[in-house]
Amino acid sequence: MKNRPTFVAGLERLGWERALVYKTLALTGLRKGELASLTVGQLELDEAVPYVVLAAADAKAGRGAEIALRADLADDIRSNLADRLATLQQQALARSESIPSSLPVDQPLFRIPADMIRVLDRDLDTAGIPKQDDRGRTVDIHAMRHTFATHMNKNGVAPRTVQHAMRHSTIDLTMSTYTDPRLLDIAGALDKLPALPIRRAKPGAAPGAIGTSSPPSLVPVLVPTSVQATDKLSSNVVGSREQGHVTSCSEAIASDADALSNDRKSRDVHRSHSKRVTRIELATFSLGS
Fold it and tell me: What are phi and psi of 55, to 5 degrees?
């Protein structure tokens, strides 16, 4: 190989282009046939957001599309085209032909061999990547389209945006078929839930005791922490529902406290009041987002 530098250089260029093919598939979601249909003239690399135009006749759904390119992918494509142009110019010079200033617009963007699947299998074997995963799923060209969708979902891209990037007609196809749930960041999603601090009552205080400065554990995070706060939100409801029998939680509690110091008959009255209190419907509270 050392005595054949031109041959080695050709192999290196071929390996570089093949790696770029895999990168383009994984970062655009293009299908194999769609990528093979692209020509140099369909590239728009000088725009603020570089893209390539996919013709309607070459798209699976029969609809044309502008496929956005990441900045680093666009740079890699520029470098590949520059290398190909330099090679073309050297060949023209060696044949004493007119030296081209650019690549032909109808030249394929990538040279996709007909046996691309077998080529990928050889590359997987060389790289030590199993052809099948632990769930029996096969790594093939179309699997890179699944990779494209899964990585976007994993990194928090809005589902509707992922659907548009995949050019799917339904969101269910994007989220169910083309997203691997095992690769999603469930732990990161849990970190986005609101904090629910548990505050402990002071030593010696009865759990849930009325009037104590330390409310019972957990409950204060989800519901009002004082009778007064409950009164303000529920007194109107209580007044209308009980028609004057119990006008507020504070009044009901005060009545119960008085009843505790009386005789058995008074305690019966206390139980009657307690039944009324249980019918009070407190205002519903929700956690902040």
Answer: -70, 145
Given a contact cutoff of 8 angstroms between Cβ atoms, the answer to whether 89 and 99 are in contact is yes
Residue 182: predicted pLDDT = 73
Backbone angles phi, psi at 65, to 5 degrees: -155, 155
Which residue is it, tokens 């699947």?
117
Pairing of strands 43-44, 51-54: antiparallel
Residue 35 near residue 110, CB atoms below 8 Å: yes
Residue 240 is which amino acid?
A: S
Q: Which of 270, 227, 269, 271 is nearest to 249 (CA)?
A: 227
Both tokens assigned to 97 = 């032909």
244: phi > 0 → left, psi -120 to 50 → alpha, else beta; which? Answer: left
Phi, psi of 199 (to 5 degrees): -100, 130
Residue 224: name the closest of 250, 252, 258 by CA. 250
Closest Cα partner for 109 from 56, 71, 67, 155? 67
**DSSP string of 255-266?**
HHHHHHTS-HHH
The arrangement of strands across the sheet holding 65-68 comes to: 43-44, 51-54, 65-68
* Tens digit of each residue's pLDDT (9 = 90 or more) over 175-233: 888 787 776 766 676 677 777 677 766 666 665 555 555 545 545 455 545 544 444 44
Beta strands in the chain (DSSP E): 43-44, 51-54, 65-68
Where do the structural domains in the chain lie, given as residue ranges? 1-110, 142-193, 219-278
- 216 Cβ contact partners less than 8 Å away, ≥ 6 residues apart: 201, 207, 208
Q: What angle do CA 153, 155, 157 make, to 5 degrees?
A: 55
Query: What is the C-alpha to C-alpha distance for residues 165 and 85, in angstroms, rounded to an integer?
Result: 31
Please give the Cα distance from 83 to 60 (Å, whole number).
31
- List the chain residues with pLDDT less than 70: 1-2, 183, 185-187, 189-190, 196, 200-289
